[in-house]
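Predict the assembly for these two chains.
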Amino acid sequence: MRWIWIDTFVEFVSGERAAAVKNVTMAEEYFRDHFPGYPVMPPCLMIEGMAQTAGILVGEVRRFQENVILAKIRLADLQAYARPGDRIRYETTLDSFDDRAAVTSGTVLMNGKNIGRIDLIFSYVNNAERSVDLPDHNFVFTEQFQHLLASARLLESSENRKSNED
Amino acid sequence: MAPSRDEVFTTVRDVLSDALGVDHEEVSDESTLQGDLGAESIDFLDIVFRLEKAFSIKIPKGELFPEDALNNPEYLNGDKLTPAGLETLKAAMPHADFSQFEKDPALSKMPDLFTVRTIVNYVEGKLEAA
């Protein structure tokens, strides 16, 4: 199963900030049940979208060598539902990180309009701390993420160039 | 000028209220973070990050919430801290009130050392040193 809730990165500045977009389409399966005749994207999937945007920003700091897991939703305040045809943009900044965890704050925009905030904490799970019931390979940054990582890296270099020119 | 103790408390209360999703009224000097306010392990990191931001201070790992002060097996006898263990913990947490804990220094009672007052004391000390 594909569990990817962002389509591509549109901005990526290593260790600083990232932005990803998600185009909501009627083809998405959950609309059958959520809700019949009233299709709205479950807000928890927006949290997941932000967690993927921010999680990749956090993971990239260590070149994806460690698993990064969502440890806490510090704040999730969303003021509107997304419907088929809407374009969601997740903007996130890396506020602080140490060897154990990282804090991100984020803004959610829908069709260009700010609709809320999602602030998160991620934990790094390294080999020493890995609990017995977690797999020993990198289970977060799997091949499913490769196209996203590719889009992020391509844009990283151009964004870095752009910010250097500013 | 350093903020007054009341001002520090008010900011600490706001931080805890945001980090733990508790009402302001629930946060008193005496409240224990885990027992009374329901903090879990990741919350301690969240609290540290928020305190750093709120007070513009840097909190080195393990300074506010010592994690490995009792790593030495000589510091523990079953669930009880040995006198050496107790002294080590006291030295690691000069901002905590040990008067109750000293009477029965059991590892399982350690969370009771982490009260709102412990944090306020720590922040005050940090701000005075700055």
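The mean pLDDT of chain A is 85. The first helix of chain A runs from residue 43 to 61.
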